[in-house]
């Protein structure tokens, strides 16, 4: 019984990190109405930025946030401004910009393979990092410390993003654009600037997730793909565009992955996650907390 | 000379060159590259039936490749049934799976459809990786199946040289192109295009869009499975990551999108342009610049989406028509 509790707790912790990774995706979808296939790659870029920040400056892994967040925000902002915006403008009248999805897939391939080209295929991790393998012990239960910090980061980031959307002037403009981009434009909101900012914030959040993952995970060029499909599943489970939904969806996936192996071969849990995803797609495509969209 | 007939002349020429190529090109490496080129052109043309004409973005066609490969291999390994028959059985099975996938997913739009097809394909791959025995059938999980090259010959679909494979895939490619051409001129083809462009308007005109898409999906999955059997017989070793990986699904979609989806020439053009890039960059830069061809794919994809959203076939067709007109005269025809 204790095992189950321990696995559930660890699953929730890991799941909240998945949720953090998916948060940027759901934010970008909520406003741009585009599924960003390059999101896993953005996470990968965030992990590399954090890794090099630790290696080059010798900072504590979590302190690198002061470098990672602005770098990633700028990266996302420029990516959207230079590559995705022109396609958006060309497809202004299309309700679902499918070409944009294709372009983000291109970005995914370019980023993943550029990092393969530049950094090589080897797995990297931060040597002598103070958090690696550190455990908290509660009686017989072991809880991973870096995952606990990741959990805190997920909750704090989600709260900050929520506050930004609800309380600031820019946040209100973002929400208005997500509700109806044309009506928002008529109120004098520059929708393309809002898109840039949203993409920047989504990328910065992916960077935060990268920082949370780096202390206990290997960094390699295709690491994004591991999280990519998981992130899609999580955001659909939670409801595309919903912040709380992303966290909850992440925790569901995390718990299935960590409790499941008590009852079956570990690799089967992946099939269960896909099955759950398909059930949700068919029965409730709007997800747990998503707003009902017209499809 | 009749101008419309003259315009077809180069096509005949291309076909003749394709037929004679193995007589000139003795290097197995180049034949191998050409075979893979045709295989991808075949896969993409099959994909195009649903991804191009029907205007949706399926990203899970690797599942059908895998089903085709596994069906024929299991049948020939365990029951001694010729892969040619296994090919048909695999096609039928894959067709059934395609319809099962299509029934619920075609109600979704755009991104949701793409995600659902990815999930289906990955789910099927994970299942194959976890099952050693499905009833009496040995699947062998992640270790895959090996086909011992014992008796070569046409009936066992196994050859010691690459030439027979070359001609088989060439015939398959020609067949699927002819089939697509036929579909694009049939009522179904017009239904598909209408439903892809504007589903509401097509429905208002009385087109059963969902049914047309389902038929396209059935045909596409049926034909894609054939490529799986060919692949299995060509490489003689299959495992879930080799015949069902997401990379295959994405590469097919990339080729179609760059070449121009929804056209007949597009997939072939795309494969003709991209496969050599991929093969030669791996041959010459594979050790120093890994992943270079995928960067090129990505860049080309983005550039094509920027400047030629309908794919490269559009400007090339225009140039081709103009050149033909200049040579043979005659008026413009589409």
Strand order in the largest sheet of chain B: 1-2
* Terminal-residue CA separation of chain A: 43 Å
- Whole-number radius of gyration of chain A? 19 Å
Coarse shape of chain B: globular
| Neighbour order of strands in the largest sheet of chain A | 1-2
Structural class of chain B: mainly alpha
Number of strands of chain A: 2
Give the class of chain A from helix and strand content and strand pairing.
mainly alpha
Oligomer: heterodimer
Could you state the order of secondary-structure elements of chain A as H and E?
HHHHEEHHHHHHH
* Biggest interface and residues each: A-B, 42 and 38 residues
Residue share in β-strands of chain A: under 5%
Distance between the termini of chain B: 19 Å
In total, how many domains does the architecture of chain A comprise?
1
How is the topology of this model organized?
The complex is a heterodimer of chains A (295) and B (334).
Chain A: H1 2-32, H2 39-57, H3 65-90, H4 98-119, E1 135-138, E2 141-144, H5 145-167, H6 169-179, H7 181-186, H8 191-213, H9 223-238, H10 243-259, H11 268-283
Antiparallel strand pairs in A: 1-2
Helix pairs in contact in A: 1-5, 1-8, 1-9, 1-10, 2-3, 2-4, 2-8, 2-9, 3-4, 3-8, 5-6, 5-8, 6-8, 9-10, 9-11
Chain B: H1 3-24, H2 28-51, H3 62-79, H4 83-105, H5 110-130, E1 133-134, E2 137-138, E3 145-146, H6 163-184, H7 187-197, H8 199-204, H9 209-235, E4 237-238, H10 240-243, H11 246-259, H12 265-285, H13 292-307, H14 313-328
């Amino acid at each position: 019984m204790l095992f189950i509790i321990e696995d559930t707790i660890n699953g929730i912790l890991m799941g909240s990190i998945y949720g953090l990774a998916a948060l940027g995706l759901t934010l970008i979808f909520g406003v741009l109405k585009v599924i960003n296939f390059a999101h896993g790659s953005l996470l990968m870029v965030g992990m590399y930025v954090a890794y090099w920040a630790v290696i080059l400056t010798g900072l504590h892994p979590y302190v690198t946030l002061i470098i990672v967040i602005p770098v990633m925000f700028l990266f996302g902002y420029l990516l959207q401004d230079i590559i995705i915006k022109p396609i958006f403008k060309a497809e202004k009248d299309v309700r679902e910009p499918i070409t944009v999805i294709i372009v983000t897939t291109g970005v995914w391939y370019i980023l993943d393979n550029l990092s393969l080209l530049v950094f090589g295929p080897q797995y990297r991790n931060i040597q002598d990092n103070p958090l690696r393998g550190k455990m908290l012990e509660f009686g017989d239960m072991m809880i991973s410390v870096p995952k606990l910090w990741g959990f805190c980061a997920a909750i704090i980031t989600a709260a900050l993003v929520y506050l930004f959307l609800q309380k600031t002037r820019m946040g209100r403009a973002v929400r208005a654009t997500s509700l109806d981009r044309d009506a928002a434009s008529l109120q004098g909101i520059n929708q393309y600037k809002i898109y840039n900012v949203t993409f920047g914030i989504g990328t910065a959040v992916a960077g935060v997730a990268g920082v949370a993952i780096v202390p206990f995970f290997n960094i390699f060029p295709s690491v994004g793909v591991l999280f990519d499909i998981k992130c899609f599943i999580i955001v659909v489970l939670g409801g595309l565009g919903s912040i709380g939904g992303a966290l909850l969806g992440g925790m569901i996936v995390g718990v299935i992955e960590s409790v499941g192996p008590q009852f079956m071969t570990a690799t089967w849990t992946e099939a269960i996650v896909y099955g759950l995803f398909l059930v949700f797609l068919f029965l409730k495509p709007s997800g747990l907390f998503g707003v009902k969209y017209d499809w | 000379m009749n101008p419309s007939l003259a315009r077809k002349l180069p096509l005949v020429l291309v076909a003749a060159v394709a037929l004679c190529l193995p007589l000139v090109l003795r290097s197995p490496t180049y034949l191998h590259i050409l075979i893979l080129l045709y295989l991808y052109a075949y896969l993409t043309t099959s994909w195009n039936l649903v991804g191009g004409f029907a205007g949706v973005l399926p990203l899970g066609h690797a599942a059908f490749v895998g089903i085709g490969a596994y069906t024929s291999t299991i049948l020939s390994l365990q029951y001694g049934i010729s892969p040619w028959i296994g090919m048909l059985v695999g096609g039928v099975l894959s067709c059934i799976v395609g319809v099962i996938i299509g029934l619920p997913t075609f109600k979704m739009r755009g991104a949701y459809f793409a995600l659902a097809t990815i999930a289906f394909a990955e789910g099927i791959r994970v299942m194959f990786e976890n099952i050693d025995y499905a009833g009496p059938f040995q699947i062998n999980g992640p270790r895959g199946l090996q086909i011992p090259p014992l008796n070569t010959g046409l009936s066992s679909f196994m050859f010691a040289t690459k030439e027979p494979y070359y001609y088989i895939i060439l015939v398959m490619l020609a067949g699927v192109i002819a089939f697509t051409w036929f579909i694009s001129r049939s009522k179904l083809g017009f239904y598909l295009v209408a439903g892809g462009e504007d589903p509401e308007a097509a429905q208002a005109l009385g087109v059963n869009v969902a049914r047309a898409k389902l038929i396209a999906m059935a045909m596409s999955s049926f034909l894609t499975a054939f490529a799986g059997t060919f692949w299995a017989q060509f490489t003689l070793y299959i495992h879930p990551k080799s015949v069902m990986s997401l990379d295959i699904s994405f590469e097919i979609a990339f080729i179609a999108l760059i070449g121009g989806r929804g056209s007949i020439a597009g997939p072939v053009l795309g494969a003709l342009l991209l496969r050599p890039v991929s093969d030669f960059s791996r041959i010459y830069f594979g050790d120093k610049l890994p992943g270079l061809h995928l960067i090129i794919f990505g860049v080309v994809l983005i550039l094509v989406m920027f400047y030629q959203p309908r794919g490269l076939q559009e400007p090339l067709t225009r140039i081709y028509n103009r050149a033909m007109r200049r040579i043979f005269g005659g008026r413009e025809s589409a």
